[in-house]
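Fill in residues.
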């Protein structure tokens, strides 16, 4: 992307979308995806809103469903539509975090260390679970996608060495999230050579393992957690070639777009929140100017 393209970086979902340069599409992913071209994207790399974890201030937002089943159904519908937008050898990299049942508490108090933790609503405990149960959201979603036709190829543990402390004394502090690699077809593009890692025992290159140790990255303009760039880089390298288009239907602060710009990929990102779009524009502009924020 050239700097001159920044003037047309953001478009509304009812506007014509460029198939030549990267763009951020302002709109709801559930309707915006329908207008995207079929069999076009090499990969989808995304992290949807987690269920019952944060209020993004948007009516009808994904993640705010009162029922876990409805949340899963919403994601299955979104990713079914995305599957038709991927090339036949395309992949989906899906990051999801888990949560504990609320014990039917209806809200969550603010936290000085983490203001985004405050919520005016909390979903009820799902049927069949008990207060304090770990819900198992990532695997429930992964199995639902598998049932819907996706090939579930790998579960990756994102280990966060600098995870946020938790004031709990009856379980370990949660320091990981899941990333699922899914594919549209049985055979798909995967450049394993590009993401080989060094063995600590031999120093030789080996196939990348399924535990990725990546620190979280604070971002000065965001009061919420953002995708770390080092988490996204191997996904982009393994699942696309230079010039390919990557799709992120939950664009947030734009990490996927920033890394695409760094590695000579194009992207379409869908985001409904105006403030997040402004953050993403700033990050991508900074990247194109040859410096990181």
């Amino acid at each position: 992307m050239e700097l001159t393209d920044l003037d047309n970086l953001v478009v509304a979902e009812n506007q014509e979308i460029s198939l030549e340069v990267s763009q951020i599409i302002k709109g709801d992913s559930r309707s915006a995806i329908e207008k995207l071209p079929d069999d076009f994207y090499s990969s989808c790399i995304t992290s949807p809103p987690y269920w019952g974890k944060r209020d993004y201030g948007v009516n009808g937002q994904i993640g705010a469903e009162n029922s876990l089943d409805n949340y899963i159904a919403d994601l299955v519908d979104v990713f079914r539509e995305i599957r038709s937008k991927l090339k036949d050898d395309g992949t989906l990299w899906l990051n999801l975090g888990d949560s504990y049942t609320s014990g039917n508490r209806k809200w969550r108090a603010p936290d000085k260390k983490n203001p985004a933790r405050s919520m005016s609503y909390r979903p009820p405990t799902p049927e069949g679970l008990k207060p304090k149960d770990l819900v198992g959201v990532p695997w429930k979603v992964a199995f639902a996608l598998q049932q819907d036709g996706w090939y579930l190829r790998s579960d990756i543990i994102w280990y966060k060495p600098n995870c946020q402390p938790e004031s709990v004394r009856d379980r370990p502090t949660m320091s990981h999230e899941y990333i699922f690699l899914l594919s549209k077809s049985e055979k798909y593009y995967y450049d394993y050579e590009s993401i080989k890692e060094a063995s600590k025992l031999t120093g030789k290159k080996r196939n990348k393992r399924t535990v990725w140790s990546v620190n979280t990255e604070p971002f000065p303009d965001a009061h919420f957690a953002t995708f770390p760039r080092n988490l996204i880089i191997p996904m982009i390298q393994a699942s696309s070639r230079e010039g390919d288009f990557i799709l992120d239907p939950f664009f947030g602060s734009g990490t996927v777009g920033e890394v695409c710009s760094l590695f000579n990929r194009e992207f379409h990102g869908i985001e409904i929140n105006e403030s997040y779009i402004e953050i993403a524009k700033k990050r991508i502009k900074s990247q194109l100017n040859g410096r990181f924020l």
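The helical segments are 29-32, 68-85, 137-147, 229-239, 255-262, 274-288.
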